[in-house]
Amino acid sequence: MRTIILGANGQLGSDLVKAFRAHSCDVAGLTHQDVEVSDAAGLERYWENLKPDVVVNTAAFHNVELCESDPETALEVNALAPRRLAAASVKHGFRLIHVSTDYVFDGAKGRPYTEADAPRPLNCYGKSKLSGEYFVSAGARDYAIVRVSGLYGAAPCRAKKGLNFVKTMLKLARERGEVKVTADEFVTPTYTVAAANQIVKLAEAGLNGLFHATPQGQCSWYEFAKAIFRFTQTPVKLTRSSSADFPAKVARPRYSVLDNTALREARLDIMPEWTQCLCDYLKELGEFKAE
To answer: Which of 115, 128, 134, 226 is deepest in the core (most CB within 10 A)?
Structure first.
């Protein structure tokens, strides 16, 4: 299976390259330095030369605050580029897997969101990503849209200056000895290795549609931080706070837990429990210590 990964140097993209190669796929990983996802002519050359069977799009403009201040770029990268990818998938006959986000929801439900729930994004980032979903589902014939949540992985996150929540917590604990984390915002933090393995399975299955792909269970950011410090045996004073203590410049959902209903019904859900994912990641970093 000839596969192209767009955004191949990102947290998820880098693990997707490894996961597809582990399944004996011929993989080309393209970064923004190779070609921008908004460069239709540049991408056309890759479609013609490499003739992929599958294209996975992880490329996105995902800095929430920058999206709000630059909606034109958010629309171009997160919506119009997927529209062109969908058209290219029909023209060149490849399967398109497009990665989306939990931020398409407003968080008001207070229970895990399924694929059947109506999206109501709160910010420009969520709106642009939802638009991209609609363009893919309307324009592609062979496609899967995969929503993920709270990604963390070994590769640096460009939108967060190379850090993710896990690395940030460990850094702050070691520098300050005290960390305050919100306890009233809930998510299912998603290890990129687990998400990558799930996407490979979905690619091989060939099913079309919308899929949520997050680990089992949920936690507050406080509970996530508590688990990080427990599994690394990091000495730190961890204090509960509320979202009101850290007023955001841009509205975000306070509850964005996803349920993998579609994967489960198709008997394709291989996502582990979220604490197991965290342990696996800490082992990858060399930070895990037995309890």
So the answer is: 128
